[in-house]
Design goal:
single chain; 108 residues; mainly alpha
Length: 108
């Protein structure tokens, strides 16, 4: 897939977002295609980690003691924002949305 600046701008990326992606490419190599693909994968991983964490929390609330539930909730309140900070959530979401739109519109 060939990713262009104009395609990314049309899909919701701002000029500042594009500059961040280009700075990343300049520092670490790669292409817009590989960067958007990697960010989309990171978004999916973070999304599933969050979903599983909340399922575990819900099960803990039902099955475990109040002290255990409070401890787990506090831990998740600390850990989940850290995970989303490492992911660059805004760029990752935009990349995931772009990849989803482009893969669903491609002829098979």
């Amino acid at each position: 897939m060939n990713v262009s600046d104009s395609a990314l701008l049309k899909s919701g990326f701002s000029h500042a977002d594009l500059q961040k992606l280009k700075n990343n490419i300049a520092n670490y190599g790669g292409s817009l295609d590989s960067v958007t693909h990697d960010l989309a994968n990171r978004f999916n991983a973070s999304k599933w980690i969050t979903i599983v964490a909340f399922i575990v929390l819900a099960l803990t609330l039902v099955l475990a003691s109040v002290d255990t539930s409070i401890t787990l909730a506090a831990t998740l309140a600390i850990v989940l924002p850290f995970i989303w900070y490492l992911t660059p959530a805004k760029l990752a979401y935009k990349s995931w949305r772009y990849r989803r739109l482009t893969t669903s519109s491609e002829p098979r």
